[in-house]
Amino acid sequence: SSQAKDKAFILANEGKAKTSEAISGLGKLVEENAAVIDEKVGAKYGDYARTAARGMQDAAAKIDQKDLGELGEDAKEFVRKSPGIAVGIAAAAGFVLARLFRRSGN
Predict the structure, then answer these.
(1) pLDDT at residue 82, as a whole number
(2) Burial class (CB within 10 angstroms; exposed 0-12, middle 13-18, buried 19+) of 16
(3) Does the pLDDT value for residue 41 go beyond 60?
(4) CA-to-CA distance for 31 and 60, rounded, in angstroms?
(5) What is the DSSP string of 54-82?
(6) In this structure, is the dihedral angle defined by the CA atoms of residues 9, 100, 60 and 73, taken in order, positive or negative?
């Protein structure tokens, strides 16, 4: 039982680090492509991309700074304040995970 808890804690921390890294990487990718968006679609949309990139990088930094307990409490508070959005996010995440697992099974 204790070993399972320790292993779960280690895996959760690894998942937190990978999530933060992925969000930060996506933010950098969006930032790097903002100039292309400026040229192809317009400066207004490039600015949206830059704002989104900063938001992603800020979110990644916040995830890095918090421990798992704080993240859990933040999630509970979000669900209490915005249950409809939380259900939508859960449904979208479930859809993405189902697609990923379906692809890996082929």
Answers:
(1) 92
(2) middle
(3) yes
(4) 14
(5) HHHHHHHHHHHHS-HHHHHHHHHHHHHH-
(6) negative
